[in-house]
Amino acid sequence: MTGTRWRAGARWRAGARDAALLAPSLAALALLFGGAIIGAARVSLVPLGQGPTLEAWRDLFDDPLFADAVLFTVRTALLSTALAALVALGLALAVRRRGALVRILLALPVPVPHLLVATVAVVWLAPGGLADRALGGLPVTPVRDPAGMGIVLVYVYKEAPFLLLLVLAALGRGHQESDEAAAALGLTPFQRLRWVTWPTVRSPLVVGSIVVLAFALGAFEVPLAVGPSNPPTIAEYAREATQGDLVSGQSTAAAALLLSAVASIALAAIAVRAARDPQGG
Amino acid sequence: MSGHELDCRDLSVSPGDSPVLRGLSLTVPAGSRTALVGPSGAGKTTLLRAISGLQDIDAGEVRLGGEPIHARAVHRRGIAVVFQEPRLLPHIDVQDNVALALRAAGVGRRERRRTAAAQLEEVGLGGLADRRVQGLSGGEQQRVALARALCANPRLLLLDEPLTALDPSRRAALRRVIVELQQQRRLTTVIVTHDRSEAAELGQRIALMLEGLIVQHGEPRTLFERPVSAAVARFFGVSNLIPSGAETLAIRPEHVRLEREGGRRGIVVEAVYAGDHVRVVVECGGQRLRAHVPPPDAPRVGEQIGVILPSEHVWPLPAATSRPEVTGSSAAPRVTL
Amino acid sequence: MAALLASAPLLALVVRAFADEWRAPALVPQQLGLRGVQIAFSGSSAEAFGNSLLVAVATAMVALVLAWPAARVLGERRLRHPAPVFLLLAMPLLVPSYAVGTGLTEWFIRLGLDGTLPALVAGHLTFVLPYVVLVLLSGFGPRLTALEEVARVNGLSPFRRLLWVTLPAAAPTVGASALIGFLVSWSDYGTSLALGGGRPMLPVVLLPFVGADPQVAATLALLFLAPAVGVLAAATRAGRMPL
After folding, report:
1. Where are chain C's structural domains?
2. What is the pLDDT of residues C125-160, one digit of tens each?
3. A168 CA to chain B: closest CA distance, Å?
4. Chain A residue numbers touching C29 (CB-CB < 8 A)
5. Which domains does chain B have, with CATH numbers?
6. What is the 3-state secondary structure (H, E, C) of C66-130?
7. Could you give the ipTM of this predicted complex?
8. Which class does domain C52-200 fall in?
9. Are A113 and C224 within 8 A, CB to CB?
10. Quick one: A54-276 is in which CATH superfamily?
11. Nearest-CB residue to A183 (from B75, B91, B105)
């Protein structure tokens, strides 16, 4: 009886200690992130020096340019993420047995800032850029093209190595052993790819892709540097709004950004659910 | 479902550049069980990997049931392997792991489940079919791995130290399962172990591997009592190697008798209690002889004692020959001491 | 060969930075010079470099201190229901950094902190902290706990245990998470733009030059790349990647 109570007390104390250890970072995050979201919601609903109004939201949904921005942003982000994931998967299968040097070379773009990759892309691929000069004219012009090919290119170059690292890390843990065991049981290379390799890499690939997708949906240094001026991405649209009307512009920008945040979170939730399907391969 | 003869001829294998197998030959008769023993680093695992195709060979050939198979891809050899670690797939349940080979062969779901359930029953895990792999103990996981290998209906079964990761009681139980199932199916089987007594229990025959070659292959008793060389003798615990003229005489310590009177006289220099016997070392005419005697009869250190080497147990090692594989046993020659 | 191929795009950046005149369609610059360097190291660009460095270092340090206890609890799997904690950690990574910056600006203006370095550090912390926690937690677990138990049995005080056992054993992960924290803050554009309030930050200063003056853009880009190169050099020497 006393033993049980003592044990319950000890467990409670351990729980309290863990909570105390988690508190600093979780409190900081809750304050900053919660504050940011509440702040943005407030700006979108209560323009400076005015009472609460839904005007900013109404403006947003009435603006055809915003609809274009949403479509353009989602399209380039999904395309970038899907291509990056495919490239990462292909590279992973090609180099999984290779040494550290190949992996380090392939991982080179990971610590490089996005804006830097965009700058390099402009130096090489812009009209009159180095590739243009070297080849005497490019078949397509990916920089500032209305389809956003430059954006996709920069994201794939930057994010495929990131996803590759995640996939290779998953393949490092006992995968070769399982693969050998499956081969000895008579599974063909294709069957092993489907039943052994894919289930191993699926969840890190999905988690990484969610991070990539969210970034591509929200960041705007790359579209600003290599994207077309029209249509804009959602973030660019918000940026332009703040430079217009000083009061209502801020509200519209905040509304647009909040919408983008909600969309990212919703997409992430859907992706996580889809990945949970046990026989999804 | 009976097995096929395994025949390895002049295998040379160099994983990671340095040669591990140097022209190794080994024949395992159809439906028989050979235990492959040797110290770590001898190349046992490399040999299994070469036979199963997980390791490329530089030279030689592997035949199974008469056909050469060394050029075939791993999954086309009809060889199942049980590894030291269970290597089960974590994302599917026990029965799907067991039936993996059937799924690969395109067998329908219902048939797969039925076969897997029957196979699990045979390895003593009936009722665990729907469990997740992670929840199983090490011994259970290794049984699932065995069931999975048998479910592939292989022509040859290779087991690479399947018992090493288990504690002694589970080890004995799984050993029995392996022997029983092998006998029922008459499946040609090679089991790697580094433990000589486990080899004696598991193998109908034992193959000893030293430095990339099979140095002796025969019935357990032959290797324990009629070793072909000093190295084989030492591996199997024949700790008395007595130079006698041009030849060397070998006798196992448990065959050495100690008598209060008579025999070759010597002084006990060491007596260590080891549970079921006492290990005694007797200094005798400049030589140290080792004997294992029952605890009640054990002499004390410093005591004078007589050593008797029964002639039926004394085995003169054949003069150094280079021919590695020697099978069978010759009659014990007459020995006079 | 592969190394050459990987570095070719960046080498072009170096040439571009020192080419005072490089008109199409020439493949070689007409005139080399230091015009880009002069502009990049004068006025707001130089200040921006300092600001970005200061903010990134401060953010990484603060994040490391806050993350350490949390990473310990999560890495040792002490929680029975860790999912809500991970959800909270994941949230800031899913939201545009410009949205975070815009939302926080609202409060910082009221607090009079708008455009200050602490405000920028706080803003970056929102998404740097989750990254640092997620990387740092991989350093904790049974292996480290076992070493600490050895230290305990040998009578080391908690402080010495931390200094002699825990920190050295966790050093690679601590280093990796600090570097990632630094790089995430250093590379950030959206929050810096929203919270900067006129205070120049390197990416914000760099971007307009990409279209307007490629030479200055290339020079600033090389500055922007410097820490990443340092990271790669360190990682290659350590024989492993930080991620």
Report:
1. 52-200
2. 999 999 999 999 988 988 888 888 888 888 788 888
3. 18
4. none
5. 6-224 (3.40.50.300), 240-316 (2.40.50.140)
6. HHHHHHHHHHCCCCCCCHHHHHHHHHHHHCCHHHHHHHHHHHHHHHCCCCCHHHHHHHHHHHHHH
7. 0.86
8. mainly alpha
9. yes
10. MetI-like (1.10.3720.10)
11. B75
